[in-house]
Amino acid sequence: MNRQSNTYTVIYAVVLVAVVGVLLSVVYQALRPQQVENIENDTKRQILAAALISPAPGESVADLYSSHITDSYIVNSKGDRVDNGVKAFDVNVANEVKKSDISERLLPVFVCSTDKGQKYIIPVYGAGLWGPIWGYMAFDDNGDTVYGAYFAHQGETPGLGAEIEKPTFRDQFEGKDIFASDGAFQGIKVVKNGQEPSDGSAWVHAVSGGTITSQGVQKMLYNSLEPYTAFFNKLSKGKEADK
């Protein structure tokens, strides 16, 4: 075949594309298990971070997760544990928070053993200024008080909204109660300096210069945690019964 002809050029290009495509597919399939494992380990790391647990240098995140997460399950809006064949770890929280009818949501719970007692970790998901924000909140066994928090983002502005992932912001949530004194769910307000509420509601200071992201965190917490009200109430009653 004439190598200078258009036919040769087209055939050569088609064969080259086909060969490269096959090679890329083979490489992808070979690396896929490792990619899945890395994603799972990163999620486990985030869950543990909410409970103030982080791996030591060289320590396996998977092993640390197995030793501290003693149970995980799904509850419904009535606070009842449900078994629908779906694992709590596999629930797509981004899809669940979009459901306006909370009775249809799958609500994951991760039970964590810490040196300060048993904690319950809840995933949260919402929207920031430039993209999704998400995280995990760990609660004491009274079903009210925040033990620890972890937040992450996809594309918030460095030095501004991206500060939600820093300890300076997330550490403020520790010790905050999500229920008012009358038992009503109140969430946690994220407010600017000088705008602290005086009604006794729980609050933290917003990220400086990250107003929209901070508002997104407040909305995320309310939308993600309020459906767990019945579950939290059952924890509280169980705690009272143990006294």
What does this structure look like?
By secondary structure, the protein is α+β, with helices and mostly antiparallel strands. It is 37% helix and 21% strand. It contains six helices and eight strands, in the order H-H-E-E-H-E-E-E-E-H-E-E-H-H. The strands form two sheets. It has a six-stranded antiparallel beta sheet. Strand 5 (132-139) and strand 6 (146-153) form a beta hairpin. The radius of gyration is 23 Å and the shape is elongated. The termini are far apart.
List keywords for this structure.
6 helices, two-stranded parallel ribbon, 243 residues, alpha+beta
Summary, kept brief:
By secondary structure, this protein is an alpha+beta fold. The protein has helices at about 5-50, 60-70, 95, 165-170, 210-225, 230-240, and strands spanning about 70-75, 80, 105-115, 115-125, 130-140, 145-155, 190, 205.
Ordered list of secondary-structure elements with their pairings:
Layout (H helix, E strand, L loop, with lengths): L5 H45 L10 H8 E7 L5 E2 L10 H4 L10 E8 L2 E11 L4 E8 L6 E8 L13 H4 L18 E3 L11 E3 L5 H15 L3 H14 L1
Parallel strand pairs: 7-8
Antiparallel strand pairs: 1-2, 1-3, 3-4, 4-5, 5-6
Helix pairs in contact: 1-2
Number of helices: 6
Number of strands: 8
State the major sheet.
Answer: 6 strands, antiparallel
What integer is the average pLDDT? 92
Separation of termini?
A: 89 Å
Low confidence ranges: none
Reading the helices and strands in chain order gives HHEEHEEEEHEEHH
The geometry reads as elongated
Q: Note the beta-strand portion.
A: 15-25%
Instruction: Briefly note the structural class of the backbone.
Output: alpha+beta
Cα gyration radius (Å): 23 Å
How much helical structure, as a percent, in the residues?
25-40%
Oligomer kind: single chain
